[in-house]
Amino acid sequence: MNIPQTTKDNITDGETISIAAQVLQHRTFDDGNTQVQLQDIEGQEFLLKIWDGDLPDFEFRENEWILLEDALGDIYNENVNVGSNYGDIQVTYLESPPSSVDRDEPDDTATDSTEQTGGVVALDIETISTVPEAEFEFDNSDHLELLCIGVGYAPYQGAPGTSRTLFRSGTTDVSEAALLQQFCDYVESHTPSHLVTFKGDFDYQHLIGRAERLSEIEPDLSTRVRGLFTEHDWTNLDPWGSLEDNADVSKTHWDIYEHSLTPAEWRKDHPRFDGDPDDPIVYNVDVPYFGQRYLEFTEQPESGHREQRALHELLRHYTVADIDPLFELLD
Known about the structure:
Oligomer: single chain
Number of helices: 8
């Protein structure tokens, strides 16, 4: 087979492309859409977005090489992706990596590093508010609920991580408890030696606090969540300044997603927002509003399929953007 030598740099917005890539990670969301994190022949990462129904019979396998034909370029604000091209995309497995891929012998030093330091799981929570902003107390777990949890895994300290967002599936206490169980499952399945957060006292306090408040639904949940922080070394990165002051954080722009919300409506009177109310960038104060709207759609998915999908992607991008830099800061 003649394998194209195209790379991420050859992807053009709105034009089709054939490109060989390795599957790093994939996830299918509740709405049926799939995102696949890929790596081209030069080691550059990009995303393949497959809308529900566009590729029903293909099963992605991590670490395998595939050939994409007639994928549609999708570039916005320097974020380079490809899409399923309204179902015209063709995906086939390659028997082996392209000949142009550098396949060095394993590095014994890296193997030793893995054995010495163990895996690393990074985490960050996003929440919705249960009281008006003027009454909100940061240390009160009754004043918030969990919306989603960003997680990422690297096989050893210094290695690049692979991140994802775990979403709550509804507005009930049962759905919040299920999110915490999903979080515990993720950490336990990766058997890390280290957990890492950025100024994570808030995350720790409210993971524990919300688990305690859900004890009638899941009596052992609080013990299980606490165990994650006692059974693993926890590194809470706390340098001067914000995450943006210390790392290159990918911005999330709310105006590129198809939703009915206008951040200026809540920003102008928000006690913790002093910027331009029309700024197209998503800030922490915006997440509870986008999140609440997203959860409303989980209770009536047929009425807001397009907007729910857009809010899901907005929140996923925002959350993962806070996880990805942590592996570099930990190095």
